[in-house]
Amino acid sequence: MIRAFVVALLFTMCAAGARAQALVADLSSHLIAITTGFSGTELLLFGATEGEGDVVVIVRGPDGDTTVRRKSRVAGIWINRDELRFSGAPSFYRLAASRPLADFLPNALRQRHQIGVDFLRIQPTRQLNSEETAAFRAGMIRNKETLKLYDKEVGRVSFLGNRLFRTRILFPANVPTGNYTVEVLLVRDGQVIAAQTTPMFVSKVGVGADIYDFAHDYAALYGIIAILFAVGAGWGAGVVFRK
Amino acid sequence: MALVPVYLPMAETAIDGLLLVSIGSGVGLLSGLFGVGGGFLITPLLIFLGVPPAVAAATGANTVIASSASGALAHWRRGTLDVKMGLLLLAGGLAGSAASVKLFGILAAMGQIDLVVSLSYVLLLGSVGAMMFAESVRGFLPGARKAITPPAARVPLGANLPWKTAFPRSGVETSVLAPIMLGFLVGVLTGLMGVGGGFLLVPAMIYLLAMPTTTVVGTSLFQILFVSANVTFLQAWSHQTVDVVLASLLVVGGVVAAPYGAKLGARLGAARLRVLLAMLVLGVAIGLGVGLVRQPADLYSIRIDVDAATKGETP
Prior knowledge:
The complex is a heterodimer.
Chain A: H1 2-19, E1 23-27, E2 31-34, E3 41-49, E4 54-60, E5 63-74, E6 77-90, E7 93-97, H2 101-104, H3 107-113, E8 123-124, H4 130-146, E9 155-156, E10 158-160, E11 164-171, E12 178-188, E13 191-204, H5 206-217, H6 219-242
Parallel strand pairs in A: 2-13, 7-9
Antiparallel strand pairs in A: 1-3, 3-11, 4-7, 4-12, 5-6, 6-8, 10-11, 12-13
Helix pairs in contact in A: 5-6
Chain B: E1 5-8, E2 13-16, H1 17-34, H2 39-48, H3 53-78, H4 83-110, H5 113-140, E3 164-167, E4 172-175, H6 177-193, H7 198-207, H8 213-238, H9 244-268, H10 270-293, E5 300-306
Antiparallel strand pairs in B: 1-2, 3-4
């Protein structure tokens, strides 16, 4: 992987030099394969910039709807009472930058490019007063952080010299499957002067994927097999241990 | 962190495989010791480990099949299984479990499934545990022999309902409606809680149907086997929540450990076993009860629906 990285890096440098692009970046892999032994993984994002500037990396998983529920106390017991549904929330979100965001990013820019969980464009499907909406929104982000789907911490993009940069992106075991985008921005003087979006895929492969597909495509047969397996295990054990 | 992480395809997360096998053996040991399926321990433990509640309940039902299959078979051979009673319980149980799988989907969509599952656990385990505890403590008190009346002396539930029939193997006479209704109730619980319901069915058969203890365990295992198979099928079919990888790890641990539990149980004796089981059942009920009453760390919870069109497709 290291050799591949060096080769790729040299290649991107040459490409950058030849076409004088302001920004070139790539990932160590565009596919995260969830195999039976999968317990999370790490990808390396690397690239080169032309001239001065700060680099911001935004990783987004497929958007989806999220229902947020709030518990209140009813007769001494905590019960889900109110709910609010949001649409357009990414299922996964990570951010990395070469400097603290406040030092070089005006809020207008963060708004436009959805940089940081607080700037995600997430729409409630129902109108509540703004205080309530904000509370539900914060509740959703907090829960997604607990599940490691979002991260408030901003990862570090480190520069090697003036032009080459790299950052590591961590994906936990429960990383949602689907189509991801990795957006790299070059920011200079409060302006995005170059941007590049790279697709990435998270997909189940091997036995796990086969089981998942089978369970959905042949649900009835899957149920019968699950039963037969359990009966067989119980019966087999009964026979073995009777002796 | 995890020693042997295993990715569970339906639960969509990774959990240490060794830990799952150990949980399976721990519960298997207890089920061999007490003659219960152990579903009432597996489901809460899986939820605690981060398995989604729907997957935990459905997979719990799947593991209960294995433990009840070997037990039912043994009782069938020994002739301590009342097939007539078992079939009537089963008729109610199949209807009850089918209804509860539907109910599960509705409650999950309403966001109330966790509450209903916890409440059912607390109420049922609490009352059954308390009854068992009181009964067995009374058995230990000096001169309390009279407190334990032979169950067969009592009048079975439903004795004055229509369609009375005799159950020669158990030596009781009651309406066919009594076991059907009882089976229905236990079937509903099986679907909702992923439990076999043995902890509920066994006392109910002794105290409500006045069956002798000899046929109770075998007959309850018979009913549990088919009802949990029905739940497994329906959950797999309509919600895709049965995780065979998770189930097999738990079952492997369980079937190996269960016979050792049975041996240990024989050495401990019935009276002591009843107290221990009562304390275990009460402990789980109290633990879950505290969780309901105590203010949760975060009042907000989420449910994520990822758009099916963008999910899991590789180019």
